[in-house]
Every structure is written in C-alpha cells, then in structure tokens.
C-alpha cells in the first residue's frame, strides 16, 4: 500500500487550518463587542445613573464619568499641555508605556525564573512543598497597594555592589511578586502531569531525577506552562502599574494615569486613554508568550497532518 506523500509526482496540498485565524478573529470580535456595549450603556443608561432606594445600582454615564469611544480616540491627538510644540497625549502614553513595558518584562522574567525554581524544588522534595506552598498561596493575599510602599522603603536602604537601590528596581520586584505565583503553581502541576507508565519507563532505563526532569517532566509540563506564562505576563503589568501609582514613580504609565485623573474634571477622555494604553500594554506583554507557544508547538498538542492513504 502506498501513500500520496510516497509518490514523487504527487504533491500534497498544504492543509488549511482555520483554527490559526480563529483566535485573532475572536480577539477582534471581543474588542468590537466591548465598544458596542460601551456605547449602548451611554445610550440606555441615564447620565445620572440609576438609583434604587437611594442606592446607586448603575453608574453615571455623562462625559465626566464615561466619555464616548470617539472622544477617547480624539484625545490621543490633543496636546498634553497648552504649550507650543508640546507632544500629544498619545505620544505621552506611548513614551510612558515603553517605560512600564521594560519594567514589566524584567519583573515577568524574574518572577518566571523564581516560580520555575520553586516548582522544581517542590516537585523534587515533598517537605519543600509542604513548607513553602502554603506561604506562596498566602503571599497573594497581601494587598499590593500596601506592599509597594514597603518595598520602596526597604529598597532605599539597600546598596548592591556599591550601587544604590533605584526606584525602578522596586517596581520590578513588585511586578515579579505577582508573576511568580502562577508560574510556581502552574509548573508544579505540569511537572506532575506525566502518568505512572511514563515514569516507570524512565525508571526502567535507569534514568535519574535530572534526566527524568529534562526528558519527561519539562516537555510534559509545556501545556501547563503556556497558560501560567500568560497569567504571569498579565500580572507583571498589573504589578508594575500599581507599583508606579503607589510609589509615585515618574516616567511610567501609572504616573500618567494619576496626572490625567487629576485633570479629569469635566471630561475623562484623557484618563480613559491612559487606561486604554495600560490595557494595550498588557496585551502586548501577554502576546509575547504566544511567540513562545509557537516555538514550543510540538509540545502543546500540535501534530503533523496524517498522510492520506489510497
């Protein structure tokens, strides 16, 4: 019996995979649905909101609380300050977003490494899991807005290699603080995902713990690694923005949100534009994980198309 691919004169057409386009189309549809819902709320909800028995159940929808979508987009082209030659609001958001992007990526990388090391240690030693995992879970119950000033205060008293602690280092540490948790929990589950038969096979080959980790556990954990990295990426952006707001660090998008919120007296378009920039920043950092998913596609359930037999 021969196959289509075994015949040199027949070239099998490349399979069409609509699933590749499904995710981007769903993302665009989700954004469009959100914008439509935004405008529907503006149209259907009264400007003063809705109150029941003196309790507000729906927020105000006037321009000071909820501007139109096109007003937010138009605000990006406005000058940041009323000075000749001043940069636009959009340029200010991009500049501050790049600053926060660098800190979020550093925090994401640091948190991912710490989470991976903790997961490997907890998988290797049961006593490490029993002693560390409860504290890892409890650590996420600490309010970040209260932790950020403490980290900044402690960092001000530290000098590494003769170099004084910089404010951006505190933001990186706080971002990594949120990023390490999903990595540690997700990878621990992934490292334990191989079934007993696969582990017994490695044992029959006289493979040690390190060989089993590299050859079996790490490849098997990739389907759990990708979602954990996505959560860690989003958490690192949230941590960086909240840390900038809490510590008052200048240059980042968190500080830009504070400045525009103080200017939002009758029109909140600039504030929403800054918040939109922070959301886009989170999407960009999370999108970087998709590149890793493509590189590790062979481990996340992607298999080559089967040959058609004739």
Order of helices and strands: HEEHHHHEEHHHHHH
Average pLDDT, rounded to a whole number, is: 81
Quaternary structure of the protein: single chain
Helical/strand content category: mainly alpha
Major sheet: 2 strands, antiparallel
Number of helices: 11
Low-confidence stretches: 1-5, 302-310
Spatial ordering of strands, largest sheet:
1-2
Estimate the helix proportion, in percent.
55-70%
N-C termini distance? 8 Å
| Cα-atom radius of gyration | 25 Å
What does this structure look like?
This protein is mostly helical. The chain is 66% helix and 4% strand. Helix 3 packs across helix 9 and helix 3 (89-124) crosses helix 11 (269-295). The longest helix has 36 residues, at 89-124.
Short description:
With 310 residues, the protein is mostly helical. It is 66% helix and 4% strand.
């Amino acid at each position: 019996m021969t196959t289509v691919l075994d015949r040199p004169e027949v070239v099998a057409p490349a399979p069409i995979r609509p699933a590749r386009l499904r995710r981007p189309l769903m993302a665009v549809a989700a954004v469009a649905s959100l914008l439509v819902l935004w405008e529907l709320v503006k149209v259907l909800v009264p400007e003063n909101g809705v109150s029941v028995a003196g309790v507000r159940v729906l927020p105000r929808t006037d321009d000071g609380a909820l501007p139109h979508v096109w007003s937010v987009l138009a605000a990006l082209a406005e000058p940041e300050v009323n000075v000749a030659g001043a940069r636009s609001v959009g340029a200010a958001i991009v500049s501050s977003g790049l600053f926060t992007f660098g800190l979020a990526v550093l925090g994401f990388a640091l948190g991912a490494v710490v989470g991976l090391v903790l997961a490997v240690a907890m998988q290797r030693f049961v006593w490490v899991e029993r002693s560390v995992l409860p504290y890892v879970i409890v650590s996420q119950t600490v309010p970040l807005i209260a932790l950020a000033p403490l980290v900044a205060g402690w960092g001000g008293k530290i000098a590494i290699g003769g170099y004084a602690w910089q404010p951006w280092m505190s933001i990186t540490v706080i971002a990594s603080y949120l990023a390490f948790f999903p990595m540690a929990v997700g990878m621990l589950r992934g490292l334990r995902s191989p079934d007993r038969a696969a582990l017994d096979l490695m044992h029959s080959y006289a493979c040690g713990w390190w060989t089993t980790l590299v050859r079996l556990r790490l490849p098997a954990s990739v389907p759990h690694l990708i979602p954990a990295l996505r959560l860690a990426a989003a958490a690192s952006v949230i941590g960086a923005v909240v840390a900038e707001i809490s510590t008052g660090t200048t240059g980042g998008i968190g500080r830009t949100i504070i400045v525009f919120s103080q200017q939002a007296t009758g029109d909140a378009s600039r504030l929403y534009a800054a918040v939109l920039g922070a959301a886009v920043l989170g999407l960009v950092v999370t999108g970087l994980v998709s590149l890793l998913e493509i590189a590790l596609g062979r481990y996340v359930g992607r298999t080559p198309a089967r040959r058609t037999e004739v």
